[in-house]
Design goal:
- The protein is an all-alpha fold.
- It folds into two domains: 53 residues, Orthogonal Bundle (Arc Repressor Mutant, subunit A); 122 residues, Tetracycline Repressor, domain 2 (Orthogonal Bundle).
- Helix content is 73%, strand content 0%.
- Helix 4 packs parallel to helix 8, helix 5 packs across helix 9 and helix 8 crosses helix 9.
- The chain is elongated and about 60 Å long.
- The protein starts with 7 loop residues before the first helix and ends in a 7-residue tail after the last helix.
- This is Transcriptional regulator, TetR family.
- One of its GO terms (molecular function) is DNA-binding transcription factor activity.
- InterPro entries: DNA-bd_HTH_TetR-type_CS (IPR023772), Homeodomain-like_sf (IPR009057), HTH-type_TetR-like_transc_reg (IPR050109), HTH_TetR (IPR001647), Tet_transcr_reg_TetR-rel_C_sf (IPR036271), TetR_SbtR-like_C (IPR049445).
């Protein structure tokens, strides 16, 4: 059953569980129990277990939800006339990756690849990045030799850099690393 098939109250409960889980995973780690997530979300344990029968299912749902939120942010940025909106989206993607590093590590350990587990969401995000990259190319604010595949690889590399610097729980430090990385994409006058 997908989100659209859920009753409105069930959909709200599911969204509340996802938001709560994401916040708790980011702040307290993956050891938090499903029952504690339910309590903090203001729903019964059965509600959490009905939507997410395993913790891995919840990890995956949190990660997919984050991708969908980024897609929505990309769509909103597409509606602006900001030629550098690409950098806004990429910064947000890197921040999201840093905030959800534990979830992504757990998915990797469980041999989940988000591109395979949620191909539509991943493709939608890549499409948003491609659209904003094209606009940035036309405006001359990004290097002309960079492709969308390279940009997506750079974002994935940024997650590793942020994690390597132990900055995934320090927003200021992870934003600084992201800024350094993104600066390499900017077109600099010679």
């Amino acid at each position: 059953m997908n989100d659209r098939e859920l009753r409105a109250d069930a959909r709200r409960n599911r969204e509340q569980v996802l938001r709560t889980a994401q916040q708790l995973f980011a702040s307290r780690g993956l050891g938090i129990s499903l029952d504690e997530i339910a309590r903090r979300a203001g729903v019964g344990p059965g509600t959490v277990h009905r939507h997410f029968p395993t913790k891995e299912a919840l990890y995956l749902a949190v990660a997919i939800d984050q991708i969908r939120q980024l897609v929505a942010e990309g769509e909103a940025l597409t509606g602006t006339d900001d030629p550098a909106a690409l950098f806004t989206l990429l910064s947000r993607m890197m921040a999201s990756g840093a905030e959800n590093a534990a979830v992504k590590s757990a998915l990797t350990a469980a041999e989940f690849d988000l591109r395979n587990a949620a191909p539509d969401a991943a493709a939608d995000l890549t499409h948003q990045v491609a659209h904003l990259l094209d606009r940035a190319h036309r405006a001359g604010v990004v290097r002309h030799d960079v492709t969308v595949d390279e940009v997506m690889a750079i974002v994935a590399g940024a997650f590793a850099a942020i994690r390597h610097a132990d900055a995934d729980t320090n927003r200021e430090r992870s934003a600084h690393i992201a800024h350094i990385i993104l600066d390499g994409l900017r077109l600099h006058p010679r």
